[in-house]
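User: Hey, quick favor. My workstation is busy. Could you predict this chain's structure for me?
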Amino acid sequence: HRLSLVAATKAELQERLKAFGTEEEVTGLVSGVVSGGESPKVAMLFTGQGSQYVGMGRQLYETQPTFRKALEQCAEILQPYLDRHLLEVLYSLEAEESVLEQTAYTQPALFALEYALFQLWQSWGIKPDVVMGHSVGEYVAATVAGVWSLEDGLKLIAARGRLMQQLPSGGEMFSVMASESKVRETLKEMALGEQVAIAAINGPQSIVISGESEAVRAIATNLESETIKTKQLQVSHAFHSPLMEPMLVEWEALANQIAYNQPKIPIISNVTGTTADSSITTAQYWVNHVRQPVRFAQSMEALDKLGSEVFLEVGPKPILLGMGRQCLPEGVGVWLPCIYSRTQ
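Assistant: No problem, here it is.
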């Protein structure tokens, strides 16, 4: 038998233990019987942009030496690539959301935090059987899978953020509660396929569109007239859209400077939605990754087919868990966040 508790104070701990004895349902308490069989297969999901906030991971930074050491290591490696020190952007008293929301800082900050979280889990003996990331998260997944070194991973993500930051703003992204086929059909009918792209397929009825503001808004308005819900996303640029193309030549040149290795842990590709093949060790794959949609729904199905039973989201707040549940049959898997909220 095993019992785990989450409590902030001694009194809260006593209260929850007492409640367990009376078989009451208690928040922050999990109990069960350990079988003698194999450990469940763990899939680690690395979160993408939109999850960041000033102070993310602060409590872990102050209390967990492994996390602190890994985050400081990332911050040190990033110093030549950023105008401001990463720890200052995250934790200083003057830290501002407006700075962290600039994609030049968002991307390396998320990478560093998620890498530090991974190192913490590993220090506790939790190792993934398979990894997957959502967009920016795939760079961390590739790092922990051994596709490249930590130094090269941080060099890449800092350059990716910088090149995207330099692009003109003016693009927009909307989430759309419709199928991929419906969105593609609308793009074709409105002849806007050159200005707007599908940026992510997050679920059977959850699509993100991205591109030129006017064109994206026109598609959203059209879909809303058919009672399809849409929501504008708070982003600095239109990621995974034609507006990313001006950065691709320089990006490819940078990606060609990296030393690549075959992954040591299976990694699910955003680009294909299946287990990555040898193409993930080429610059061209990471060029395509900038421009192609994130095939998250298909990737979740691939994780399920591999027998994944525990889905652990490695990021500053749970975003992928809710999306992932929508992609798999009800009752499948155990879904666990690393950090519940800004206060934990």
